[in-house]
C-alpha cells in the first residue's frame, strides 16, 4: 500500500488517501485510541449491508499492532470530488436531492437511520455530480437495542442539522423521517442560504437549534420562499415526524414533481 496524502482528521480517526496493490485509490481510516468499539462495529456492520450508488462503500476492516498497541483501520472508496459545496444552484439541488433521497430510501429498507446527515457527510465521486453519504459513526439499526441511554437529554447528533426527536432523545420517534428532516436542513442551507428555523436577530446557531428542540414552526419567510420553489422542503423540515412525508416513495414523488416549477 502506498500513502499519498493525509486528507482529514477527526476526534477518533485520521483519513489518508492511499493506493492499493492493484492500483486503485482508497481512503484509509486509522482509528485513534478512545473510539467506541460498539459504535464502530455498528458503523461497519451498517456500511457492509449497504449497496447503493450514493452510499460510501466499505472494502475492508483490519487490525495491526504498532509499538505494543493494537490499531484499527478501515479501507473505503476514495471520493475525489470533495464535500457538498456551501452554495449550489436550484437545478443542482433538484439533482442531488433526488439521489440522496434514494440513498435514504435504501437505508430505510435496511431499517437503518444515519442520524448525522450534514454537508461534511455528503461527498462526491470524481465526476462531481454523484453525491455520496459518508461517515456512519452515529448510525442506528432499528432492529437492534439502542446504545444511547434513555436518561440522556440529547441523543447522538450534530445539533445544527438534527431533528427534534434526536435533540430531545425521543428514541421511539426516530426512524427514516429523522434523516428526511436533516436532509431538508442541509438542502435548505446550501440552496437557499438559510436554516429553516433561523430568525432575523439571532445571535448564534443555537437559537435555531433551540427552536427545533422546542418543536416550533420554521421561519414564516422561509416557508413562503420554499412554497414558490422547493415546496417539498417545507414538509421535510416539519417539527413532528407525522407531519413529514410518510414514506420515502412519497418524498421521492413530491421531489420529482418540483421539476415543473424550476
Can you put this structure into words, describing what you see?
With 262 residues, the protein is α+β, with helices and mostly antiparallel strands. It has 2 domains: 76 residues, Phosphorylase Kinase, domain 1 (2-Layer Sandwich), CATH 3.30.200.20; 172 residues, Transferase(Phosphotransferase) domain 1 (Transferase(Phosphotransferase), domain 1), CATH 1.10.510. It has 8 helices and 9 strands. The strands form 3 sheets. The protein has a 5-stranded antiparallel sheet with strand order 1-2-3-5-4, with helices on one face. α2 packs antiparallel against α8. The longest helix has 20 residues. It is globular and about 60 Å long.
Output mean pLDDT. 92
Q: What is the β-strand count?
A: 9
Helix content: 25-40%
H-E string: EEEHEEHEEEEHHHHHH
**CA(first)-CA(last) distance:** 47 Å
State the CATH superfamily name of the largest domain: Transferase(Phosphotransferase) domain 1
Inertia-based shape:
globular
What's the CATH topology name of the largest domain? Transferase(Phosphotransferase), domain 1
Strand order of the largest sheet: 1-2-3-5-4
CATH architecture of the largest domain: Orthogonal Bundle
**What class would the helix/strand composition place it in?**
alpha+beta
What are the defining features of this structure?
single chain, 262 residues, Phosphorylase Kinase, domain 1, Transferase(Phosphotransferase), domain 1, 2 domains, five-stranded antiparallel sheet, two-stranded antiparallel ribbon, 9 strands
Amino acid at each position: 500500500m502506498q500513502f499519498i496524502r493525509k486528507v482529514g482528521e477527526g476526534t477518533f480517526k485520521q483519513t489518508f488517501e492511499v493506493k492499493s496493490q492493484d492500483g486503485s485509490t482508497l481512503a484509509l481510516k486509522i482509528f485513534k485510541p478512545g473510539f467506541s468499539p460498539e459504535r464502530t462495529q455498528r458503523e461497519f456492520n451498517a456500511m457492509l449491508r449497504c449497496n447503493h450508488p450514493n452510499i460510501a462503500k466499505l472494502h475492508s476492516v483490519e487490525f495491526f499492532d504498532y509499538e505494543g498497541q493494537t490499531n484499527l483501520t478501515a479501507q473505503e472508496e476514495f471520493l475525489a470530488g470533495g464535500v457538498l459545496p456551501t452554495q449550489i444552484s436550484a437545478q443542482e439541488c433538484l439533482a442531488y436531492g433526488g439521489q440522496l433521497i434514494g440513498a435514504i430510501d435504501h437505508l430505510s429498507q435496511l431499517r437503518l437511520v444515519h442520524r448525522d446527515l450534514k454537508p461534511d457527510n455528503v461527498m462526491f465521486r470524481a465526476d462531481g455530480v454523484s453525491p455520496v453519504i459518508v461517515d456512519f459513526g452515529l448510525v442506528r439499526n432499528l432492529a437492534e437495542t439502542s446504545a444511547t441511554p434513555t436518561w440522556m437529554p440529547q441523543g447522538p447528533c450534530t445539533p445544527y442539522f438534527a431533528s427534534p426527536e434526536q435533540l430531545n432523545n425521543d428514541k421511539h420517534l426516530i426512524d427514516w423521517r429523522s434523516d428526511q428532516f436533516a436532509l431538508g436542513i442541509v438542502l435548505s442551507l446550501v440552496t437557499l442560504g438559510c436554516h429553516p428555523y433561523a430568525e432575523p436577530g439571532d445571535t448564534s446557531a443555537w437559537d435555531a437549534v433551540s427552536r427545533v428542540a422546542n418543536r416550533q414552526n420554521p421561519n414564516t419567510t422561509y416557508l413562503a420562499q420554499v412554497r414558490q420553489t422547493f415546496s417539498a422542503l417545507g414538509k421535510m423540515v416539519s417539527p413532528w415526524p407525522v407531519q413529514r412525508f410518510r414514506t420515502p416513495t412519497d418524498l421521492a414523488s413530491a421531489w420529482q414533481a418540483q421539476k415543473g416549477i424550476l
